[in-house]
Structures are given as structure tokens and as C-alpha cells.
Amino acid sequence: xxxxxxxxxxxxxxxxxxxxxxxxxxxxxxxxxxxxxxxxxxxxxxxxxxxxxxxxxxxxxxxxxxxxxxxxxxxxxxxxxxxxxxxxxxxxxxxxxxxxxxxxxxxxxxxxxxxxxxxxxxxxxxxxxxxxxxxxxxxxxxxxxxxxxxxxxxxxxxxxxxxxxxxxxxxxxxxxxxxxxxxxxxxxxxxxxxxxxxxxxxxxxxxxxxxxxxxxxxxxxxxxxxxxxxxxxxxxxxxxxxxxxxxxxxxxxxxxxxxxxxxxxxxx
Length: 268
Known about the structure:
Layout: H1 2-8, H2 12-34, H3 38-63, H4 66-81, H5 87-121, H6 124-131, H7 153-164, H8 167-187, H9 197-213, H10 216-231, H11 243-251, H12 256-267
């Protein structure tokens, strides 16, 4: 919501600063949870600096591609006039696209080598935690205290409370409970999502009735399944990143450089 408000006032610098701080906190949570040794921190710091240099070189190559800029400007002018695209221009555009893909491929392959080197120096427990890390600002309490829990514990608690409501009160309040649930879902939907409120009310009401009717044993066995069912089709679980991409996104992000430098300094 804060980001949305700032966007309305075109406060790009403030937005970038906030999103950067959020990413820094996520990286800090991961580093704290991994319990990296000083040698590991130094190793990752070195690879993160190399990654930053690779990315800087990539953007320099792109910005120096005057021929590509000229080709794209010609295509833009052509599309403004909505004219037929000459074959020669088509060939030049395809050539420019291929060149950009080659630059990007070289960059990704170089960073992947560094990510693999980082993976090789992590111990099995650290790799497990990294594989299961879900970025967050406030980590939950627990043995692996680095990211959001994969279990929908908040929703399960909500379902438990619904089961505990006396029958007479549930019959009085169930439509209000369903309405509040639907409103909460709407707030977390991606912008532009088509959402059938009436159908969702009926679906959720039926689900709540079913949850109240089953035994305690059945609920204990199926509570996660019911929690995921409550979220419905609108909150499809994201495909997890592979380990190499996770390392690139978090442990090789340039934002980690000052964080590790400070951590290493504090260990002296």
C-alpha cells in the first residue's frame, strides 16, 4: 500500500529506497539463519563483487550499442506511421535482438558459474535452509528462523477458531465471517484479477460448514489441505526457484556486499 501511494505521487527515488531496504532485510534474515562462517562470508563477498562487475559490464555493453539504438529508433518511427516494415529493417531488428540475447546469455552463464561455486562451499544444512527459504521481513520463531513458514499456520488458526464457535453463534454470524474472509482475500489479489464474489461466498460458506462438521482427528489430519482450499484458485503457489537462481537472487545480489563487509568487520 505504501509503495502504491508513493507511485501515485511519482516518488521513484523513495520507492527504490524502500524496496532496496526490504531486500536488504530479507538478505539479512537469510544470512543470520544460515550462520555463515567468516571464511564463507569472505568467499560469498568475493563472488558477489564479481557478480556486480559482470552485471556492470553487461549494462555498459548495452548502453554502448549505438547500432541497436538506431535500429530500434527506425522501428519505432515505422510503427508510429503504421507503415509496412521493410524486409531490410526486419532483418536488422532480428539481428539486434539476437545480439542482446547473446550478451544476456554470456552474463547469466558467468553468474551461474559463481553461483555453483557458492553452492559447493555451503554445507548440507545450509543448502536445505536456502532451498526452503521464503523471503520475509520478520522471520517466524522456530528452528529455521530465516523466512516465512511454508505451512499456512495463520489460516489454520483461523479455521480452528471457526470450529470453536458455538453453533447458535455461528448460525448468527457465519455470513459476516464469510464476508470478512472474502474482503481479506480481495485485498491480497494481484491487480486486475477477475474475482467472482458471490461464487466465492458460497464456496467459502460450504467449506466452513464442512470444517465444522468433521471430527477433531480428521481436522488435524487435513487442516493444511483445508487451509490451501480456502485460498482457492486465486493464490496458486509459485514455482520455486532452483538453488542456483536462489543463490544469484540473494547471496550474489550487490546489496549483500555492504552487509557482509559489516558482518565480517564485527567478527574481528
